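TASK: fixed-backbone design
INPUT:
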């Protein structure tokens, strides 16, 4: 998966609502990093939502995951993100912000990763501004999995606004509407609803 390797795996005790935030980011990261396995789909199918926009989106995603075969999910992932030469969508921050890969947004991300003590996973060859990588990094900043402890909310906000909030909502809307998208359309709805909550919470900080 495109991403960062933590300096250690220790996770400090955090508030339940922050643990839930980290879990949603990791759900996005897992399904965006590679085609989901049968186990991934079963885990997603067991998710329970609530009577909120995000909760309803999670319930819909869980229902679709429970009715999706791993081979069909792999085919959908291939069409959406790999394709022949290029998939229907290009899930990188640089591409959404500039129209090209490996541009200034990626350079800025690498600077901020160094400042936060985040290291690129040497086993991963994709640029770090992939949506899966950024979601994994946000999860680690929230729960401390990528460092010695969770980072302050102000640092989470700065990272989110600089590297995710400026483009990921557009990506998730495109994912919702992609012609090759069924399972991933539902994931796009989850992503959209979740980022709206994140943006609203950070605006109050």
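OUTPUT:
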């Amino acid at each position: 998966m495109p991403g960062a390797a933590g300096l250690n795996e220790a996770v400090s005790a955090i508030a339940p609502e922050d643990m839930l935030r980290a879990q949603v980011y990791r759900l996005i990261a897992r399904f965006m990093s590679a085609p989901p396995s049968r186990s991934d789909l079963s885990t997603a199918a067991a998710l329970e939502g609530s009577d909120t926009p995000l909760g309803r989106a999670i319930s819909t995603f869980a229902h679709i995951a429970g009715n999706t075969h791993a081979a069909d999910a792999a085919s959908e992932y291939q069409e959406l993100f790999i394709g022949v030469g290029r998939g229907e969508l290009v899930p990188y921050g640089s591409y959404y912000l500039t129209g090209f890969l490996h541009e200034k947004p990626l350079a800025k991300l690498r600077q901020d990763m160094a400042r936060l003590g985040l290291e690129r996973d040497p086993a991963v060859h994709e640029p770090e501004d992939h949506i899966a990588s950024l979601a994994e990094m946000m999860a680690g900043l929230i729960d401390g999995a990528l460092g010695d402890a969770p980072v302050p909310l102000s640092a989470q906000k700065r990272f989110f606004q600089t590297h995710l909030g400026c483009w990921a909502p557009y990506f998730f809307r495109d994912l919702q509407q992609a012609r090759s998208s069924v399972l991933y359309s539902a994931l796009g709805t989850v992503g959209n609803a979740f980022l709206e909550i994140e943006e609203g919470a950070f605006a109050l900080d």
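COMMENT: The longest helix spans residues 183-204.
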